[in-house]
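Lab notebook, bench 4. The sequencing result for the construct came back, and we need a structural model before the next group meeting so we can plan mutations. Quick request posted to the team channel:

Model the 3D structure of this chain.
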Amino acid sequence: METEEHFFTASRKKIEEYVHDRILLVKLQAVEKTSQLAGKLFSVLIIGMLIFFILLFLSIMAGYLFAELTGSLYIGFGIVALVYIILLVVILKLRKSLIEKKVINEIIETVFDKGADAE
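Done. Here's the predicted structure in token form:
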């Protein structure tokens, strides 16, 4: 009877340790995935800012170029604004099919990356 009690006490202790270790593993995996997403988000943000400044200065340059060609500052910068309006309309039309699906797929791929879990 005493060995049976000892068996159940030891088994309960092992089960509690196992559950604790599994919870810790899930927490560590969640932190890893969150940090991967944060790292990707940060790098995309930095790249986005650099692209923004490049486009800003190229747009100013193009505005002055078109102003020189047309002889009017308003028309030159108006042409650049028209190009951006056309780009905005195209992006709004293709937003769901291209951009949002790509972002969603990237997040899902990062969260459920089986290659990192196998290691």
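The chain has three helices and no strands.
Will bring this to the meeting.
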